[in-house]
Specification:
The structure holds 2 protein chains of 2 kinds. Chain A has helices spanning 3-14, 19-36, 45-60, 62-70, 72-100, 114-118, 154-169, 188-200, 204-213, 219-228, 233-239, 246-261, 282-289; strands at residues 137-138, 143-149, 173-179, 265-266, 268-271, 274-277, 303-304. By secondary structure, chain A is α+β, with helices and mostly antiparallel strands. Chain A has 2 domains: 3-100, no CATH class; 124-304, Glutaredoxin. In chain A, the strands form 2 sheets. In chain A, strands 1-3-2-5-6 form a 5-stranded mixed β-sheet. By secondary structure, chain B is α/β, with parallel strands linked by helices. Chain B folds into 2 domains: 3-24 and 280-387, Alpha-Beta Complex (Aspartate Aminotransferase, domain 1), CATH 3.90.1150.10; 26-277, Type I PLP-dependent aspartate aminotransferase-like (Major domain) (Aspartate Aminotransferase, domain 2, 3-Layer(aba) Sandwich). In chain B, 35% of the residues lie in helices and 17% in strands. Chain B has helices spanning 26-38, 49-69, 82-92, 113-117, 138-144, 167-176, 262-278, 280-299, 329-338, 351-357, 373-387; strands at residues 14-15, 76-79, 100-104, 124-128, 149-155, 180-184, 203-207, 218-222, 238-241, 246-248, 304-307, 319-324, 341-342, 344-346, 362-366. In chain B, the strands form 4 sheets. In chain B, strands 2-8-7-6-5-3-4 form a 7-stranded mixed β-sheet, sandwiched between helices. Chain B has a 4-stranded antiparallel β-sheet with strand order 11-12-15-14, covered by helices on one side. The longest helix of chain B has 21 residues, at 49-69. The chains are: A alpha+beta, B alpha/beta. The A-B interface holds A 44, 47-48, 50-52, 54-56, 58-59, 62, 65-66, 69 and B 327-328, 330-335, 338-339, 385-386, 388-389.
């Protein structure tokens, strides 16, 4: 059964740490050998894996167990292909990291997960705190948390829900937003500029929420968002006419400030002397507020800035 | 007496594999530990007190066997297990070309292969076919017997089907034909009494590990006067030896070459004591309840195919072979293990019978005195879950 191929690889790795898995590795090896020669697996490892999995499923959902049992051969084939596909993908990433310093290949500015392990101090350690009081502020709390975010960044977007939960639970904390559009994300700059244009008409946070609610940041849709929020269209269009309007300059100023602070990915939060990179849970925000955590947080999933030092 | 106090019965998974090997009773382990800790010595050697005590305890087991089976001490031979005992009879009888052996279609390989091997010597092996529930018919046996039938080798209870057999009649029919009779009692002794003064078999074999005893030990009963030559010779088997030849001992020792399994033999004696202590009536009554509960569990599950007897009165012991729809038997056993029941799967060393049943293998649940009805109820629930796949 093809699943033995996956088992062989998994038990080979686990076997480094445990004799129990070494024995299973050799069982899987025998199973692979017999599968390759079109003979049934003598050790019945494949049947054990299948039956154990289905027994667990039976405890939770008999219909799901029945379906998996019925189509197990096909499912295990798909799983095996995906497994080895991901292994090949990872191998290419490792090669890219070795050859180009970025797992996504030459000239890529996308976030590289290996940085978290191989360069734990990269970027985050060089962050310097930024001054509050420059960007739009949500809430009246005396403790100000500054967020550098990109409206087109999926990590910034996914950070919003837990962030809002945290803010709702802590009225003593207010949020200040600074724009840090990631250049490789389409329309990220104009989205940030549009938000500041809305700010000129007193509706920054409404527009901010709308941008995260709707991923379409084409120029046309940005205008429609403004219309839905009853912004003055003429003023909005004039504000968006070029990147050197006051709103455009605000974006550039924020980006420069972000670079100066050493920001390498979005979202990045500064709170109470602690820097947080990537989406956080409400508890993590609370811990940071209490001074728990470090100013060199783990490099969480974030949208990577191409010009960052790390 | 609380039977469960005599065993360390596991709870999860519950032990449902007693036909393969029963749990070892605590007094058995205690007896073996007593030997190792108090009088560890070889037997029948030297004059010191340890060897005397060890020899005394060792010899006492023959007396226990004699009492237990209503036979004579000298009629028992120590063997490793039932398989060795039956092979010993196959090697120890003087089979000639044209001799006939009758065995059955429900035998364990251990009571089939030794006879099939004799075909190489020109011995004819005839098979008594059991009915669909594994029942052996004395009249069918009678029809197979001829003046050349030297041996009838029968199981007292099938290790796959657990069918109650008409042992006394089967043996009588064979003896009326002046044939020797061998009983494979591996699945019988732990569950029902076997009175060899009534069931007049010439040879009877059983294993210690199926009767609450240790592994690696068993006994072969060899009726006084029935032919049997030692299949091994060596130390401990002779009256005298020279460079020209040797004279064998007259008693059972002539079959037991070399230093025997002393602790295990004492453990076997303690196992028989344990059965005596519980009492066969209590064992049979308890198993009757388990059999009834198991039949109820199977009856409520239409996805299960049960092999062998369909009614409780035809079951000799709480031993059930079954399959669940088309779910492979090994997978069913693994799932039952996950749900808390240690069952066996496969052909159970009875491939001809498995083929006759029309399957590649079955799952076998075999219970004993240390199991209980609550476990059976939960087993039924687990079986319902597995049945959802069928």
């Amino acid at each position: 059964m093809v699943l033995c191929f996956v088992a062989l690889f998994v038990f080979a790795v686990l076997g480094i740490f445990s004799a129990k898995y070494r024995a299973l590795f050799f069982e899987a090896l025998g199973c692979v050998g017999r599968t390759l020669t079109l003979r049934p697996c003598e050790s019945k490892l494949d049947e054990r894996i299948k039956a154990t999995l289905i027994a667990h499923l039976l405890q939770r959902s008999p219909p799901a167990a029945r379906a998996v049992h019925k189509h197990f051969a096909a499912l295990s084939l798909v799983f095996t292909i995906l497994f080895f596909g991901s292994m090949i993908y990872s191998a290419v990433a490792v090669y890219n990291y070795w050859a180009y310093g970025n797992c996504n290949g030459p000239n890529s500015s996308e976030f590289c997960a290996f940085d978290a392990v191989l360069r734990p101090g990269a970027g985050a350690g060089n962050l310097t705190a930024v001054q509050a009081g420059i960007g739009p502020k949500r809430g009246n709390g005396s403790i100000v948390m500054v967020e550098f975010g990109c409206f087109s960044c999926p990590f910034t977007r996914s950070a919003q829900s837990p962030l809002n939960q945290f803010l709702a639970s802590r009225p003593d904390v207010s949020l200040e937003f600074r724009a840090f559009p990631i250049p490789t994300h389409e329309n990220s700059f104009v989205a940030a500029q549009a938000a500041f244009c809305a700010d000129e008409q007193g509706k920054f946070w409404e527009y901010h929420d709308a941008l995260f609610a709707d991923e379409n940041h084409s120029r046309e849709n940005l205008g429609q968002m403004a219309a839905r929020l009853s912004l003055d269209g003429t003023r909005f269009d004039a504000c968006m006419a070029s990147n050197s309007t006051p709103a455009g300059l605000r974006v550039q100023r924020d980006v420069a400030a972000g670079h100066a602070a050493g920001i390498y990915g979005t979202p990045t939060f500064f709170i109470n002397g602690v820097t947080l990179v990537g989406p956080q849970t409400p508890q993590e925000f609370s811990d940071a507020l209490r001074g728990i955590g470090t100013s060199k947080p783990e490099q969480a999933a974030s949208c990577h800035a191409p010009n960052a030092s790390g | 007496m609380d039977i469960t106090s005599l065993f360390d019965a596991p709870k999860n998974p519950a032990y449902f594999d007693s036909a393969a090997s029963s749990l070892t009773a605590k007094p058995v382990r205690a007896k073996m530990e007593e030997f190792y800790s108090q009088y560890r010595a070889n037997i029948h050697r030297g004059a010191h007190r340890y060897t005397k005590k060890a020899s005394q305890e060792y010899e006492a087991v023959y007396a226990k066997l004699a009492k237990f089976f209503h036979a004579k001490e000298s009629e028992f031979i120590q063997v490793r297990n039932t398989t060795e005992a039956i092979n010993g009879v196959a090697l120890g009888l003087d089979f000639q070309r044209g001799d006939e052996i009758v065995t059955t279609s429900i035998e364990h390989h251990s009571n089939l292969l030794p006879w099939l091997r004799l075909k190489e010597k020109g011995v004819v092996v005839r098979i008594l076919e059991a009915d669909d529930e594994g029942k052996l018919a004395p009249d069918k046996l009678k029809a197979l017997l001829t003046p050349k039938t030297k041996l009838v080798a029968l199981t007292a209870c099938s290790n796959v089907l657990g069918t109650k057999e008409p042992l006394e009649q089967l043996v009588k029919v064979s003896k009326d034909n002046h044939s020797l009779v061998l009983l494979d009692a591996a699945q019988q002794v732990g569950h029902h009494p076997l009175d060899l003064s009534k069931v007049k078999a010439d040879y009877m074999a059983f294993s210690g590990h199926k009767v609450f005893g240790p592994t690696g030990i068993g006994a072969l009963y060899h009726r006084e006067g029935a032919p049997l030559a030692p299949w091994f010779v060596g130390g401990g088997t002779i009256r005298e030896a020279s460079l020209e030849g040797y004279k064998l001992l007259e008693n059972h020792e002539r079959f037991e070459a070399g230093t025997p399994a002393i602790a295990e033999w004492m453990g076997l004696g303690a196992a028989l004591d344990t059965i005596d202590k519980i009492g066969y009536p209590k064992i049979e009554a308890h198993e009757k309840k388990l059999i009834s509960a198991m039949f109820s569990a199977f009856a409520s599950n239409p996805k299960v195919s049960l092999y062998g007897p369909k009614s409780a009165q035809d079951k000799a012991c709480a031993l059930f072979a079954f399959s669940v729809g088309r779910v492979p038997h090994h997978e069913v056993a693994v799932m039952l293990d996950q749900f808390g029941f240690a069952c066996r799967s496969g052909h159970h060393c009875a491939m001809p019978l498995t083929k006759r049943l029309g399957v590649e293998g079955t799952v076998r649940a075999s219970l004993h005195v240390y199991n209980n009805e609550e476990e059976v109820r939960m087993f039924g629930e687990a079986l319902q879950k597995v049945g959802a796949l069928a």
